[in-house]
Amino acid sequence: MSYTLEVCVDSTASALAAKRGGASRLELCADLIIGGTTPSLALLQQVKAETGLPVRVLLRPRFGDFCYDHYELAQMEQCAAQLVAAGADGIVTGVLTADGALDADALRPLYAAARQAAQQAHRPVDCTLHRAFDLCRDPFAALDTARALGLSTILTSGQAASAPAGAELLGQLVAAAGDRLEILVGAGVTAQNIPALAARTGAHAFHLSGKKVLDSRMTFRREGVPMGLPGFSEYDLWQTDEANIRAARTALDALER
């Protein structure tokens, strides 16, 4: 079986670096530095046109938890339809109840909107459950819910801070998911730990950003005037590194031999 390398990007420059490095597909978001939010239609269309790769888009209206109010859910449903109509090959989202269960009632309209838009465009769409799964109370109950929702993929670290730390549960999830539901291993994945993760979990799909920090092009800099989260410099740019992705692709290709 071949191995999938999904690269999470939030810019066209990162998407192109991921393609050059050998990405199988992209997860597209905005604001990756805060875990990602929903990207714009313009960014999606540009990335599709420039890379030609399959692109799954993140549906996340804000930073923070995954327990959303009805305004946020309405936004997400509308965005799902618009993004798929604009060319997205899949959507990546997740919603939890206040007590930590996967919220199937909230998720069902989001996936339905994506599927309806895909049907109208006469093409398929892949529906993914993102790492909200890692914050749910019962991963195996959530796995059953994902299966009932007809999802194709669950992105997970095995309910741990990183995939290596969650490898034991990841292996159990891969076994429980079977062939019809892809367990996409993410969080802390690198070229160096992919062989061990593949061996320990049995997974065939891996997710990473492969980012590096670039210095801003700005020559004039006004220091001490922060524009966002404390501790992050406006003059540090996070971008996918082609070499990091190529190394991960090489590690996966070696497993196929």
Would you write up a description of this structure?
- The chain has 257 residues and is of the alpha/beta class.
- The protein contains eight helices and ten strands.
- An eight-stranded parallel barrel has the order 1-2-3-4-5-6-7-8, surrounded by six helices.
- α4 links the parallel β4 and β5.
- α1 (12-21) runs parallel beside α2 (41-51), α1 (12-21) runs parallel beside α8 and α3 packs parallel to α4 (104-120).
Topology:
Blueprint (H helix, E strand, L loop, with lengths): L3 E6 L2 H10 L3 E4 L12 H11 L3 E4 L11 H16 L4 E4 L10 H17 L5 E4 L9 H10 L4 E4 L10 H11 L4 E5 L7 H8 L3 E4 L2 E5 L20 E5 L1 H15 L1
Parallel strand pairs: 1-2, 1-8, 2-3, 3-4, 4-5, 5-6, 6-7, 7-8
Antiparallel strand pairs: 9-10
Helix pairs in contact: 1-2, 1-8, 3-4
Write a concise synopsis of the structure shown:
The protein is α/β, with parallel strands linked by helices. Helix content is 38%, strand content 18%. The strands form two sheets. The protein has an eight-stranded parallel barrel, surrounded by six helices. The chain has a two-stranded antiparallel ribbon with strand order 9-10.
